[in-house]
Amino acid sequence: MALLSLSAHAQKTTEATAGGPSTTNCLPSFYASQASICQGGSAVLQFGPNPCDLSTTYTYAWAPNRNISSATSPSVVVNPLVTTTYTLTASTGAVNAYSTTITVQANCCQYAESSPKVVELGTNYTFDYNLAQYAYGDPFQYDFSTSPPMPRAPGTVFHVGGGTLTLHGNAYRLPVGGVLLMGPNADVVLDDAQLYLEGATITAACDEMWGGLVHPGSGHGLFAKAVGTLSPRLMHSRRGLTFTRDATAPASTNALFLSNLEFLHNYRALTLDYSASPAPTREYVRFCTFDADPQLLKIPYAPISTSSSHAPTHVRVLGDARALRFRQNTLQRALVGLTLAEPGVAMQADTCAWVDFQLAGIASQGTPDPKNAPSRLGVTSGKFVFPTATKHPGTGQVTQALADYSPALYTDATLGIGVVQMPVSVTGAAFRQDDTTPYASFGYANYRTEQIGVRSQNLTLAQGNTFRALGVGLALEVPANTATDVERNLFSECAKGFSLLSGSGQVLADCNTFERGVSLSARSGVSYGIINESASTIRLEDPNVQPGNPATVLKNRFDDTGTSNSGFYALYNNAPVGMLSYYSYKNYSQLTLATLVNPSVSLTFTNTTPDYVSGTACVNLTPNGLQRNGASLAGAQPATNSSLAQNTPNPTHGSTTIAYRLPKGAQSATLLVRRALDARVVETLSLDTSRQELRPDATRYPAGTYFYTLLVDGAPIATHRLVVE
């Protein structure tokens, strides 16, 4: 039963039976099509006005406003993932409240539980606009068993028992909140056809995974978007969505538009194949959620005994996907979040989150062809939250994934980004372990697998990133005749901030902050700022100038939190031969740098009294860089009572509004706008200290992602992301 409760303003309180409206005379009706659904199912909630007074005008408000097709309509479709009570407030001057609870069951057999009646489908449909006015051939939109054909209702449930559901011709569109139940290993194939998922779901009919949605080169497009807060979903499949770009399609042809699509509990969620033709500029995968809870996978990948099966990867990319707008997606609970199938793959990921990945957030598979120019990876504003588990799960999937992604992954490590030879740039990202409670010392291997922010053989740029509470922040190989820029990053509470693994190339490590981050009394053991491992003869210098030139001076801050070298080495050379050279300003550290190094480090100081202008060595770049303010070695302190808000709207197509607050007595305030791709400053805006709002004209910026930073009296306060479309 779905309970109907009316407020004191109503004439009477009644019960409404799931599946049909109340028949009480002269009272509004309120009913749910079903009171219990399987996870991935939907229900229709319907309000009917007083049949004795149809002239009354109602206004409607639903709460909560999530997983619902509209917040202000009398009839809605809901598809909650957990048991939820929905309340409708219907106002006519007086206020009446109606509530019903939709109970959600996980891993039940939806085909057996679905109500109302399930529409059985065949496996072959041709959609031809010329044959009839009712979009003849689209089984999702019209019921052709009636004459004339009747439109399908929102939330209609369909079923394909087996085989391949092939859609030919033009456009097919599931009803809002519709559910397509697929039999074991059954596929949906688009043959010269388009498919629209608007708040609709494709999922397994019962207890075994269905095959997947296939968009071959002959497909004409896949479109997914939310209706209200009702997200489209692909659930419980073996292969999720396989999208292949048509090699013969003009560059202007766009076929992939995925927004707010939830890929839930699939063994593999999304394969993007651009190997035959590069991605066009207007295709996108944005605001999508990828989640594979191992306890919610179905046969044959369901948990066996005490060892849970894990999805091997969420997203696999082949070919040149640089122009694809892969933005603001969340990838969680898988062995690998994003896989790059080298050679020749290129990818740009912007403002995405990787959470609870077992082996790596991003990993490459194979070795790139050096003759293939597109190979590259760019990550901007990413968030990598490492798992709290102590060890990798002991499943066959882990063993297979380690073999598939060798040598990018390791049996005893978890990586945020693990690539082989592909050029990589990482800007504005955060790599962190939130659970530091097990750590009594900096011996991370004693508590869980080693956690590494970025492990690369060809890192071109790491700029404006944060590495917190990891075994290693950056672990790099820098081959001879190559160079790496590591600038304006924060390394905090890491056993090793920046580890130089091997090679004899050059690293410009400038304006970074290396801090122990926790006192010796709170955590024992030794941590390191920059450590030169045994196989490395890498040089720390600017590759663009000659040694001895003041431009080679490195301006990194080393903060030992008062432990000196008993708990922190700013620079440490573990190589058996050779010296690690470091050329810097005198005392450009919290303590005297010479007391914080291994004896095999060659220190060269210049300008005992620095001759640069106070506060400008690393200022106006990012909050993670070193701030030097006169004689103070701790850095410029942010002004109190200052704040910076996220711009609205964001993304923006033109003007946007940025709210800020400045403290009393502030002498100056500026807004620094930088490109996310390379941190280049595109504009510096002076702020009126008497105002609290700025409206920059974003039409001056090319489409892309930017960061804007509030600086008050030269000190950074906060940074936010700006997306221009």
Ordered list of secondary-structure elements with their pairings:
Blueprint: E1 29-32, E2 36-38, E3 43-48, E4 59-63, E5 75-78, E6 84-91, E7 95-105, H1 110-113, E8 119-120, E9 124-127, E10 142-143, E11 150-151, E12 157-160, E13 164-169, E14 171-173, E15 179-182, E16 187-191, E17 194-198, E18 201-204, E19 212-215, E20 221-225, E21 233-235, E22 241-244, E23 256-259, E24 262-264, E25 268-274, E26 284-286, E27 289-291, E28 313-327, E29 330-341, E30 346-350, E31 353-365, E32 376-380, E33 383-385, H2 396-404, E34 413-418, E35 424-427, E36 430-432, E37 450-456, E38 459-463, E39 466-468, E40 472-477, E41 483-487, E42 490-492, E43 496-503, E44 506-510, E45 513-515, E46 527-536, E47 539-540, E48 557-559, E49 568-573, E50 580-585, E51 601-606, E52 643-644, E53 658-661, E54 669-675, E55 681-686, E56 693-694, E57 704-712, E58 715-724
Parallel strand pairs: 2-7, 8-12, 9-13, 12-15, 13-16, 14-17, 15-18, 16-19, 17-20, 18-21, 19-22, 20-23, 21-24, 22-25, 23-26, 24-27, 25-28, 26-28, 27-29, 28-29, 28-30, 29-31, 30-32, 31-33, 31-34, 32-35, 33-36, 34-37, 35-38, 36-39, 37-40, 38-41, 39-42, 40-43, 41-44, 42-45, 43-46, 44-47, 45-48, 46-49, ...
Antiparallel strand pairs: 1-3, 3-5, 4-6, 6-7, 10-11, 52-53, 53-56, 54-55, 54-57, 57-58
